[in-house]
């Protein structure tokens, strides 16, 4: 799992303070941002955009992409060929423990076999990538850009950092 901040609104606090001061005809100060946030006047924070590139298993991405007020662009398995590389898969921490070698070997075997069949179907042009991708497990890594405004990130953090949320989603 990885998430890397790649783009953001420069001097976001100042920018939000200027937006808030416009509403109240006051001097731009950080206090006005706090006041707006606390009173639910979130639009001043919506001007600030933050973008991450994330690499996670598909089952984690699907939870992440359930968010509102976000823009996503994901690597498309419709166009990616196995020969181009970049196919990785998730290994649960339970399988990395001592005594789980047999289960780990099975996990790896099934993922590698799925990649092998996908490559055979697509590289030999037996079927289109968009159909062959149905064979791939949900544990394979996907790569996507996730952009949201500050209010969207705040809402997302409240939902995804909950201790009841799956560990993998909390980590990104």
Account of the 3D structure:
Strands 1-2-4-3 form a 4-stranded antiparallel β-sheet. Helices cover 42% and strands 17% of the residues. The chain has helices at residues 12-24, 30-39, 58-64, 101-123, 129-132, 150-160, 167-171, and strands at residues 2-8, 49-57, 70-74, 141-149. The protein is of the alpha+beta class and 172 residues long. The mean pLDDT is 90.
Physical arrangement of strands within the biggest beta sheet: 1-2-4-3
Decide which structural class fits the backbone: alpha+beta
Listing every helix as H and every strand as E from the N terminus to the C terminus, the arrangement reads: EHHEHEHHEHH
State which percent range the strand residues make up. 15-25%
Rg, alpha carbons: 21 Å
What's the shape? elongated
Q: Main sheet, how many strands, which sense, barrel?
A: 4 strands, antiparallel
In terms of per-residue confidence, which ranges show pLDDT below 50 for 5 or more consecutive residues? none
Helix content: 40-55%
Total of DSSP H or I helical runs spanning 4+ residues: 7
* Number of beta strands: 4
Average pLDDT? 90
- State the end-to-end CA separation: 7 Å
